Amino acid sequence: MASGFNLSPTAVADGFRLESFAEIGSTNQLALERARAGDPGGLWLVTGHQTGGRGRRGRAWEGPPGNLAATLLLQPKVELSVAATLGFVAALALRDALLAVLPEGAIAVAPDAGDLARGGRFALKWPNDVLADGAKLSGILLETAGAGSDDLAVAIGIGVNVVAHPEATPYPATDLGAMGATATAADLFFALSDAFVDNLRLWQGGRGLAAIRHKWLAGAAGIGSEIAVDTGGTIVRGVFETIDADCHLVIREGNGQVTRIAAGDVHFGAVASVKNFEARA
């Protein structure tokens, strides 16, 4: 077990367990293996160097030494559609943790951040990103094992750019060091393990989803602005109005039609309005 990573006292008191690694291929992959081997859940797997991470839609997630890669394995005893909302729980927990470890005033919103800044210092991008100053700071990936609510296991993977971020990405990226923060991956994980307890309690096995939705909207990026959503082949453009009771994105298209989207990639600002976006997405 690698040294330096610790659970908060609140997480320990709630029965969470921790395994940390100096280096690992994928914390999510290991979590799913543990689930199939009968792990009861409540297990954090964490590293400061992930060599085989992945993001949504099979994209690679870079994890150089010093960045944070953590996965929480849960057995939530809920249906898959309810378990999917754990992504919002994770985003809120990460935002709370970032606000706890970043010194006040260490980040100034860029002049061109526009509608992204409405979510505050750390804004939540639907469905599962956390932005800093309009740039991507982290990614969250949910993967499952099992079929029914009784044996459903959820691996909630969280990657955060702590000391480095990828270059030449479709959208700007950043890291905590670039923002002036001195917090380490271990510092952030300690705060994350604590914040996750609070937000899981708010979620209440899905019964508290309305409270999660309300808290998420308070920190959301881009509400009221023009967006384009790639739903996997179809591009939907319009104004981002809200998320509904099931945390689906609600967009009002140019013809006035209101469309609800369960999954997709959101693009803000100028990229959302370019005519050749379909070819670039």
UniProtKB/TrEMBL annotation:
Q: Extract the GO molecular function terms from the UniProt entry.
A: ATP binding; biotin--[biotin carboxyl-carrier protein] ligase activity
- State whether keyword Ligase applies: yes
In the Enzyme Commission scheme, what number(s) does this protein have? 6.3.4.15
Q: Transmembrane segments in this chain: where?
A: none
**InterPro entries named among the record's database cross-references:** aa-tRNA-synth_II/BPL/LPL, Biotin_CoA_COase_ligase, BPL_C, BPL_LPL_catalytic, Transcriptional_repressor_C
Keywords annotated in UniProt: ATP-binding, Biotin, Ligase, Nucleotide-binding
Protein name in UniProt: biotin--[biotin carboxyl-carrier protein] ligase
SUPFAM superfamilies, sorted = C-terminal domain of transcriptional repressors (SSF50037), Class II aaRS and biotin synthetases (SSF55681)
The record's PROSITE patterns line, in alphabetical order, gives: BPL_LPL_CATALYTIC
Cite the NCBIfam families for this sequence.
Answer: birA_ligase (TIGR00121)
Looking up Pfam families in the UniProt record yields: BPL_C, BPL_LplA_LipB
This enzyme catalyses: biotin + L-lysyl-[protein] + ATP = N(6)-biotinyl-L-lysyl-[protein] + AMP + diphosphate + H(+)
Question: GO cellular component terms?
Answer: cytoplasm
> Which residues are in the BPL/LPL catalytic domain?
10-204
